[in-house]
Amino acid sequence: MKSPYRDDFRIRAFRFGGDAHTVAVVGAMRGDEIQQQYICSRIVAELQGIEERGGLNSGCGVLVIPSCNPFSMNVSRRFWTMDGTDINRMFPGYNKGETTQRIADAIFTILQDYEYGIQLASFYMPGDFVPHVRMLRTCYEDTDGARLFGLPFVTLRRPLPFDTTLLNYNWQIWGTKAYSLYAGQTNYVEDATSAQTIDAILRFLSKKGVINHRVRSAGYESVMLDEEKLTNITAARAGIFFRIARAGDDVRRGDVLARILHPFDGSVLEEVLSPVDGTVFFAHNKPLALQHGIIFRII
């Protein structure tokens, strides 16, 4: 699209293999999804090397889109810079609509007939996750395929009405086996979770016969989870968030997960205790906690 500011708006993609529409990988949809773009850039580099070595099945085709929203990333905005709308809430798009609807339409026109779709996504709440595959229950979800990534968990969630505008949902409705990968956090790149997610994508491509490549580890036997059965822990008080437990930690009932501190005198307003035995699935990672906001989710 033409732009009155700086350069024109372009979405750049990388194609590997033959003309078949086998697997599409989509990275940053929002301007703060730096880790998601980084992982896609690493996938591009890995596939370039694999293809040069003759390790990519010529009967398969792979498309990688590292970023769908470079404008917002350039100015450090999570959503579209002009009106604050979310491209990932605009699918399947509308080519005569608002700007983000037209962007979603252009993306989905390219993506909709791929056999498999992988999205590097981020959660609406800031925090760290145990790396996992997330799927919406549409009656078309491919749980067997989700296990091939070898990540610790595969979660399923009943879609709410506003979820019908997500890329994952529309991919599934239009016949693509779609998987959303959550890589731990958003604003960090050189982290173990990035390497784990890169290995997971290459593992999936290998097990599907798209590439001939040996991944460094066999991965996990993924555990299936219903998100409605996760235990949510909210902050009773607002204040400075001093976190003790982290994503992936095993905790016992009564363990101190965090402390909410008074912002002026440093006194402890609340000790956040685990109500159950389990594993920390999600942990808030911002320095402030809001009253009644979710700060931990426990398996």
How many helix segments?
6
Order of helices and strands: EEHEHHEEEHEHEHEEEEEEEEE
Outline the low-pLDDT stretches. none
With strands numbered from the N-terminus, the spatial order across the biggest sheet is 1-3-2-4-8-6-7-9
Helix share, percent: 10-25%
Radius of gyration based on Cα positions: 20 Å
Commentary on this structure:
The structure is a single chain. With 299 residues, the protein is of the alpha/beta class. Helices cover 22% and strands 27% of the residues. The protein has helices spanning 34-52, 70-74, 99-111, 143-147, 167-173, 192-207, and strands spanning 14-17, 23-28, 61-67, 116-120, 127-129, 132-136, 153-157, 177-182, 223-226, 231-234, 239-243, 250-251, 256-261, 268-273, 278-284, 288-289, 294-298.
Concise structural overview:
Helix content is 22%, strand content 27%. The chain has helices at 34-52, 70-74, 99-111, 143-147, 167-173, 192-207; strands at 14-17, 23-28, 61-67, 116-120, 127-129, 132-136, 153-157, 177-182, 223-226, 231-234, 239-243, 250-251, 256-261, 268-273, 278-284, 288-289, 294-298.
Which labels suit this protein?
alpha/beta, globular
Give the secondary structure arrangement, pairings included:
Elements: E1 14-17, E2 23-28, H1 34-52, E3 61-67, H2 70-74, H3 99-111, E4 116-120, E5 127-129, E6 132-136, H4 143-147, E7 153-157, H5 167-173, E8 177-182, H6 192-207, E9 223-226, E10 231-234, E11 239-243, E12 250-251, E13 256-261, E14 268-273, E15 278-284, E16 288-289, E17 294-298
